[in-house]
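WARN no homologs supplied; continuing
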Amino acid sequence: MNRTRRILSKWLCALLIVALPPSAGAESTDWTFGGHLKYRFTFTDYPGNSVFREVLGSNSLNNSFETRLKFGGRNDKWDFKADYQGIFIHSETLKLFDSLPASPAPVNRVINDDRRWWDLTWSVGDDEKNALVHRLDRLNVGYTSDQTAWRFGRQAISWGNGMIFTPMDVFNPFDPAAVDKEYKTGDDMLYGQYLFDSGNDLQGVAIVRRNPITGNVESDQSSLAFKYHGFLGLNEIDLLAAQHYGDQILGVGGIANMGGAVVRGDLTWTHTDLDNVISAVTSLSYSWTWGGRNVSGILEYYYNGFGQKNSRYSLQELLQNPDLLRRLERGELFTLARHYVAASASVEMTPLLVLIPNLFVNLEDPSALAQLVVQYDWKQNLLVLAALNLPVGPDGSEYGGIEASADGLYFSTGPSVFAQLAWYF
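OK structure emitted
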């Protein structure tokens, strides 16, 4: 099955690579090339009662190199894009995936295409600490006219109006606490958009996925979604209808001006095999000048309808909430509880140096994650990104560490440091 899938994927690669129509002649095709190289380092400390300490010791060190080579071409209304990713990881936390398979906490995993339609990821070798991965994260061909656009192949899409939490964005959303959010992981899809004369538009996407156990394409693993975006005066509105992993999703969202601030929000209703679930997010963003420095701030409230009630995070309680566990495993949700508040600010210290303090608060524990991100344009084409993360909360809370099955141990982490140097070409 895997051999056949790889052969079909390689034929699809070849088909897309030659997909630009040759009728206009190669000399009329505008080719582009670029990319980046990133080195990333993380250090994480573990408290004495952490279950991770049993596997990793008092702390862990992770290093990775990632290169992205971007190749594209445009010929009249047709265009082609391909992004190659090469990833080398030396990470002590890779062993957690095998050592703690029942962990509800996110663990460092090597990216794969087990769920994706095309198998465009090749792992040269991985073990408990090292992994070398080659993959195509973008591979698509598109056509654009005055009112229509469509694109077929591996690509990424983002929907919704949440600035930090994104209940309407179910296609590989970013972890709210992620530091580098430059590229979303791509999926294999057909995307289309129609632009009305009024400026409103209708978007549609069909994503084909496989059952990771059988390797077969299945409808209850795939997605079909439509989103209408319109204008009501100076305000905007979004309407969503989707079939996603066998669940039905309806959503409404919008953006409105309120004085000098901007109000955003989304409300979604999801019908699963077990329940009807409401989730919502609303935020207020405002920009001002403080001490001669430009500042942009965000205050956001998030209600996760899939979350646990009354901070019940024991493994037995979590097993009774399969809708939540499935979304955690697929990387669609990153929180365990229901009520959250997040605050973020971007402070331009100099034209080249930006400080971004973030705070994520679980209102029910209560517990929180405090984060300070530093972004520095060091030199031309060189960008430094760094962050300090401080989880705060009592034992048994989400950010303080939920209880493990062993008495007196918790899925807890202490302070962590993230640093990344990126070179663009």
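The longest strand covers residues 59-75.
OK
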